[in-house]
Amino acid sequence: MPQESAPHASPSTDPLATGSPAPGDPGHGPHHPERTGVWFIGARGSVATTAVAGCAAITAGLHPPTGMVTETPPFAAAGLPAPGALVFGGHDIACVPLPKRAEELTTAGVLPPGLARAVRADLTAADAEIRPGGPQSGDTRGDEELIAAFAADIVAFRDRHRLARVVVVNVSSTEPLPAPGAARLAPSSLYATAAIRAGCPFVNFTPSTGLNTPGLLAAVAARGLPHAGRDGKTGQTLLRSVLAPMFVQRALTVRAWSGTNLLGGGDGAALADPAAAAAKNAGKERVLADVLGTAPEGEVHIDDVPALGDWKTAWDHIAFDGFLGSRMILQTIWQGCDSALAAPLVLDLARLVARAHERGLSGPLPQLGFYFKDPDGGSSALAEQFTELLSFADTLRDPR
Length: 400
Prior knowledge:
The protein is α/β, with parallel strands linked by helices. 37% of the residues lie in helices and 19% in strands.
């Protein structure tokens, strides 16, 4: 759900160096080695609700794990935590409980009829582990107070359920990029700092800032934690990462590539802000520039259409040159439910990053670029990213 802008105050030069010491490392307190926590930022939003309901449905055998790459044969021996071993919690500024959110998503056609009722106990259990986020309107706490409170919530969750580890996953609505020299950390960076302080890996499934500041990148490296991001690749950019290499491999010159997104729901409202839309479009543009070698003419426009709810339509218009300069056009239309596209990827990422943490890996994970518009290095072409992901699955296996 959208995180509100923070009031201004003076930042610390090192958000991890102030206040109380880190609550603990991944081994803090007793734990059950077979249980892994997933702590959502935006825990009552559409993506998180769909992920929790979907994980419960898969565990109960009510639905197959469609869209979960980690449930395919190449990952069977990677040692990933089972879907049934995931325990959910998180932060949100919204108050609508998960069972009610699931009912709303059923009405919207996101969840199948009857599923919310069938997994109500799982939704209720996860909702009981959601804590108030922030900063909210009128919140007078500074960055350090918020970070300490968020970190304490995560550590308490880990200890209460005796979890081996907790992966913090940001699925909140896109926030505008902070202005140069901003007085305070962006909300996504407050949560990222709290994750580091709690000794937890961090996944940024949004284009928001998160760890993407020099101070936080240095801090997460010093703590030896893995992290992955930014901005989940679910629809239009997924298709671009497949089509752009085709033009390069066939020696076809792309002259212009324009696109339009029509979407509603929380994302539509958040991206109606031009600054938030600019943050979102940066990843879409990166894919074309990386693969084609230069950014072609054209822009991506994002329009908020509240009547569409959780559904979106993405249209691309590609102008390219063929043999002897013949002018050609390719147009694509992608229509889908963003939450249903994103939820299996979020579950994949939580499992992969948890296993990477268990194996002692740290720092950015470019091998997970398959899931992101703006990955931590490596190719932007989907086929090459998938090869890297399969290789990563092999590295996660227990040594023999």
